[in-house]
Amino acid sequence: MAAFRVLVASRLAATPAFAPRPGLRLLPLGGWAPSPRAALHASAPRPGARVALVLSGCGVYDGTELHEASAILVHLSRGGAKVQIFAPDVPQMHVVDHAKGQPSEGETRSTFAVDGKDCKVDRDVERVLREFHGAGKPIGLCCIAPVLAAKVLRGVEVTVGHEQEEGGKWPHAGTAEVIKALGAKHRVAEVTEAHVDRRNKVVTTPAFMCDTELHLVHDGLGAMVREVLELAGH
Q1: I need a surface site. Which of 8, 54, 78, 143 has the fewest CB within 10 A?
Q2: DSSP letter assigned to residue 206
Q3: What PANTHER family does the database record attribute to this sequence (predicted)?
Q4: Tens digit of pLDDT for each residue in 25-74?
């Protein structure tokens, strides 16, 4: 892990990150050697920040939102970062038929959806967050993932957007109260903005916590990536 300067997580909190399952682990950040096939998912070598991008699951209802992930990769590429992608190496715990937008038979819920502020963070996810934070390396979190920082990093400042639903524009506004209940500070921000907690080097943006146009989410993710790379000295 020491080789990486930056940690960025897209919707990591949405599914397996909160699941207390035996054997849940992140692919090792220090020793992973990409195969030729994996090289398709990494940026071309170039000078710049080495970034670990952590994803979880696949799809808006059961893991990383695809538009968020691709936008982050575009902005990291534009910023000259060298990226490697990681994810919890566990069975999918929440499977959704995306054609119907409904859970498939036998699916289970993440503990955040059920337990709110009493949710559990996988110990390896928690370890990585604490190690990056302890080493003074910047962390970027988007969408629901700022809840991870609120749970793990005491007193951190994050945003998931607005604190009122405002007629459905911010359908997950209640998450702000969960963040406060965890002892963290919530800062109101627009979807195109990123909040920077400079003391903790944590950068967050609402992304699809807001029901809005894709290009606005893309702009907010760009703001997050730029701030993270700036904190990393790039």
Answers
A1: 78
A2: -
A3: ES1 PROTEIN HOMOLOG, MITOCHONDRIAL, GLUTAMINE AMIDOTRANSFERASE-LIKE CLASS 1 DOMAIN-CONTAINING PROTEIN 3, MITOCHONDRIAL-RELATED
A4: 444 444 344 444 444 455 555 468 999 998 877 777 667 899 999 999 99
How far apart, in whole angstroms, are the C-alpha atoms of residue 55 and residue 86?
Answer: 6
3 contacts: CB under 8 Å, gap ≥ 6: 30, 50
pLDDT, one tens digit per residue, over 214-230 is 999 999 999 999 999 99
Handedness of CA 214, 218, 219, 223 (dihedral sign): positive
- Say which DSSP state 88 is in: B
- Please give the biggest Cα pair distance in the chain: 48
For the whole model, what pTM was predicted?
0.80
H-type alpha helices, the chain: 66-78, 111-115, 123-134, 146-152, 175-181, 214-231
Neighbours of 80 (CB within 10 A): 13
Tokens (6 digits) for 151: 């749970």
Q: Give me the count of residues in the chain.
A: 234
CA-CA distances (angstroms) from residue 229 to 18, 55, 143, 174?
27, 18, 19, 30
